[in-house]
Amino acid sequence: MTTPDAPPAPVQLSWSGMTHPGRFRANNEDAFLALTFDANEVRFLGKTGQSTLDQGNFVFAVSDGMGGAKAGEFASRKAVDKITRMMPRTFRLAAGGLSSGIGDAMVEVFEHVHAELNSLGRIYGECAGMGATLSMVCLSPGWMHFAHIGDSRIYYLPRGGPMQQVTTDHSYVGWLRKQGKINEREARYHPRKSALDQALGAGHQFMDPQLGAVGCQSGDRFLLCTDGVVDGLWDARIEEYLGLPHAEVPLAARIVEKAVEESGRDNSTAIVIEIL
Question: Which of 22, 46, 169, 181 has a CA positioned 20 to 30 A from the CA of residue 175?
Answer without folding.
Answer: 22
